[in-house]
Design brief:
Structural class: alpha/beta
Distance between the termini: 10 Å
Strand order of the largest sheet: 3-2-1-4-5-6-7
Radius of gyration: 22 Å
Number of helices: 16
Amino acid sequence: MSRTPRLCIVSPNRNVWSETFIANHIAHLPGVELVLTDGHLPKRDVEGAPLVHPTLLKRVVQRIARKAQDDVLRNAVAARIRKARIDVVLAEYGPTGEAMLPICQRLGIPLVVHFHGIDAFHVKLLKENARYASIMREASAIVVVSREMEQQLRSLGCPSPKLHYNCYGIDVEQFRPSAPERSGKHFLAVGRFVDKKAPHLTIAALHLAWQQDREIKLTMAGDGPLRESAISLAKALGVDGAVDLPGVITQDQVADRLQRSRAFVQHSVVTAENDHEGTPLSILEAMACGVPIVATRHAGIPDVVEDGVSGLLCAEQDVRSMAANMVRLASDPALAGELGRAGRAKAERDLRLEDSLNRLHTIIRGVWAR
């Protein structure tokens, strides 16, 4: 088939622009004709318009069971997909794939399910979705962003032929190479303040490093439920003067701060609920900027960061080793430059956004052409 397949992307979060990887799919994948959002079984289009009038849904809820409300929504979603003459549906996150599978089966169109992290591991999600038995069996393709996630879904029953590893990509033109060897002893962390990113452990490592070198500084950009606790911990440890927490910053601001950083820091961990990262996009951005990585051996991080080559890795929870790695780069700017250049070379060679999008498009074309 010579034409580009007409694609519908379904993303559960209405504000998809906070999820850069999904925003890139919407903005850059060829053939996107329809975007549906607001729930795993979507309730709105990308402009925010409801698929079913709220008054109708309210009447359904008042008169009959919740299952009937979902049936009304499924009919509305199916009608929109049919009207847009969609060839393939791309479901962002595993639970979205579970919700969309009956609709795709009814319409006779292939479903590609894209896992991102929490959806592949979290105990509650695996229980609620019965370990994804239906999509493992019936989806046309399943996409993962780390080798660990690939292994996990294979253990949940996904046949190897339909499982595709495709790491996220980075705009290497937006994130230009820097010279970390000429930066001050300034470290940068960017991400949500949530359990799996363990901001308290990053601050604990900074505290140990700062005790050895009082010139070391850390910026932690982002927001989330643990931000206030992180601020309190920095004060309690007496390092609040060495830690800057500016809140959420834009991608351009991230790129600007990376240009002035000695290294990027992230202490990702597996949580008590078995939540994991995928492959953190902020680490790829730092590599594209030629900034070395100080991080844990978690999820997809070792897939892209080679210890001693483009960064310095340690075990989860090992704040002493992370602190030692920070001190090492603070005291050896030449090493920071060497690791950063290797990271930039890796980004240019293997982590380009256009290459990641092309691989995903090839998967989509492949299931459509069968």
